[in-house]
Amino acid sequence: MAESTAAPRPAAIATRGLNLWYGDFQALFDVNLDVRQGIITSLIGPSGCGKSTLLRSCNRINERLGYVRTTGSIEILGQDIYAPEVELVQVRKQVGMVFQRPNPLPLSIRDNISFGHRLHARGQRVSRARREELVEDALRKVLLWDSVKDRLDDPAIELSLEEQQKLCIARLLPVKPAVLLMDEPCSALDPKGTEAVEELIWELRGEFTILIVTHNMAQARRASEETVFMLIGKVIEHGLTEDVFLNPQHRQTADYIEGRYG
Amino acid sequence: MTTAPMELFAGTPRNARDHRVEWLVRTLLGMMTALLIVPVVIVLALLVVRGGSAISWEFLTTPPVDGMTAGGILPALVGTVWLVAVALVASVPVGVAAAVYLSEYAPDNWLTRSINLAIINLAGVPSIVHALFGVGAFVLFFRFGTSILAASLTLAVMTLPVVIVSTRESLQAVPRAFREACWNMGATRWQTIRRIVLPNAVSGILTGIILEVSRTSGETAPIMFTGAAFFLPFLPQGVLDQTMAMSLHLFVIATQVPDAPDALPFGVALVLISMVLAMNALSIGFRIYVRGRKKW
Question: Which domains are present in chain A?
Answer without folding.
Answer: 3-257 (3.40.50.300)
